[in-house]
Amino acid sequence: MPEVLDESTEISFRCYKGITCFNACCSNADVTLAPYDIVRLKQRLSLSSTDFLAKHTVPFQMDSDGTPGAKLKTTEAGACLLLDGDNGCSVYSDRPTVCRYYPIALLNLRPKGESNTSQQYSMVQEDHCKGHLEDRKLTIAEYRKEQECYEHDELNQEWYQLILKKKSAGPAAGRPPQTSLNVFFMASYDLDTFRRFVLSAKFQSTYDLPESLYAEIEQDDVALLKFGYRFLRQVLFAEHSIPEQEGIWDQRVAQRQEVWDARRQAEQALRQKAEDEKYKGEL
Fold first, then answer.
1. Sequence-distant (≥ 6) Cβ neighbours of residue 34 within 8 angstroms
2. CA 39 – CA 187 distance, rounded (Å)
3. According to the 3-state scheme, what is the secondary structure of the chain?
4. Could you give the CA distance from residue 9 to residue 19 in angstroms, rounded to a whole number?
5. Backbone phi and psi for residue 167, each to the nearest 5 degrees, phi listed first
6. How far is CA 29 from the centre of its chain?
7. Which candidate, 90, 105, 100, 96, places its Cα nearest to that of 69?
8. Global pTM exceeds 0.70
9. pLDDT tens across 145-181, in order?
10. What is the distance, to the nearest Å, from the Cα of residue 233 to the centroid of all Cα atoms in its chain?
């Protein structure tokens, strides 16, 4: 088990262009992306989230329930596609959270009986990394500030809470339906598709939200991301913070009743047909 560290822990580390291991960590990359990472990267590369995901990521399952995740795509040799040769990371100021923290691993924990997560840390020691040998000491808090981790942590924190809440529910919660997993992927990663979904006439006729929120969501990726977390809580855990239009529940019940009635009529017709064919056979 790795040693659990906190923000006051002092570490020895320095990475810079010219160190003998420069780019070694990027040449064998395994980078899991959080939602805000994708926001920053797709804006940096002037791509839609859909195009960014197709061009720069590979999907994977985060758990046995099939919860979808996204990792940065690499070359066959394992090098990050965003690596610019000897120049290092081509998107350095917008690099993902995992890259900012390296060689520290961010641990999001949810103590038993509590609703919020807590952040702790551990040290990643890899043979290729010579930054640990540098004569520079600083606390993890100082390193987080230097690497500008705080904004990423703030905007990913609620998503980490969703993941941990799902894990803590255990087998009793059951596997989410595929529709819920699709919504999770869309609201977590494919924000441009999620935006079209939220701004659709069907969505707006279902939920009672102010026009000012829709206007903000249309223009602001961060506002959309935060709304996505609210929507996922409602979809995955039935935490209703997004009000529905008056009468929408009665409308759904009526629609479902029509489906049930049609299904019963079809089943009755099939049974009657089977009985008629059986009777003809006996004759």
1. 96, 97, 152, 156, 159, 160
2. 12
3. CCCCECCCCEEECCCCECECCCCCCHHHCCCECCHHHHHHHHHHCCCCHHHHHHHHEEEEECCCCCCEEEEECECCCCCECCECHHHCECCHHHCCHHHHHCCEEEEEECCCCCCCCEEEEEECCCCCCCHHHCCCEEEHHHHHHHCCCHHHHHHHHHHHHHHHHHHHHCHHHCCCCHHHHHHHHHHHCCHHHHHHHHCCHHHHHHECCCHHHHHHHHHCHHHHHHHHHHHHHHHHHCCCCCCECCCHHHHHHHHHHHHHHHHHHHHHHHHHHHHHHHHHHHC
4. 24
5. -65, -40
6. 19
7. 96
8. yes
9. 999 999 999 999 999 999 988 887 655 456 788 999 9
10. 13
Write out pLDDT tens, residues 214-249. Answer: 999 999 999 999 999 999 999 999 898 899 988 654
Write down how long the chain is. Answer: 283
Residue 201 is encoded by which pair of tokens? Answer: 């006439």
Give the count of beta carbons closer than 10 Å to the beta carbon of residue 52: 24
Q: Which two tokens stand for residue 57?
A: 């990521």
